[in-house]
From TrEMBL:
PANTHER family: UPF0654 PROTEIN C11D3.01C-RELATED. The lineage of its organism: Eukaryota, Fungi, Dikarya, Ascomycota, Pezizomycotina. Residues 70-83 have a biased composition (Basic and acidic residues). Pfam families: Con-6 (PF10346). Residues 1-83 are annotated as: Disordered. It comes from Podospora pseudopauciseta. InterPro entries: Conidiation-specific_6, UPF0654_domain. This is Conidiation-specific protein 6.
Length: 83
């Protein structure tokens, strides 16, 4: 079941899609205004705790990625050590 953030995101995407009709965009704007406070809803990640194992895995991957700056690697290492 989609969250409010996902539903609002779909309507926001519709508003920015050049291939959708004006009628469709008007409907999406109406729904955002009436049901989602103009689209101002909490993000999906704001309402759930992050899995610490996944966070640690992402930080470890950042530290080994050759395309990541030294500064980002150092930041990832510090965050990992503080977990």
């Amino acid at each position: 079941m989609p969250t409010d953030a996902q539903i609002a995101g779909g309507h926001k995407a519709n508003l920015n899609n050049p291939n959708t009709s004006k009628e469709s965009k008007d409907n999406s704007q109406k729904i955002l205004d009436n049901e989602f406070n103009g689209g101002d809803v909490p993000k999906a990640s704001d309402t759930k705790d992050k899995n610490p194992g996944n966070v640690a895995g992402g930080l470890k991957a950042t530290m080994k990625n050759p395309n990541v700056s030294d500064e980002a690697k150092k930041s990832a290492e510090e965050r990992l050590n503080n977990m």
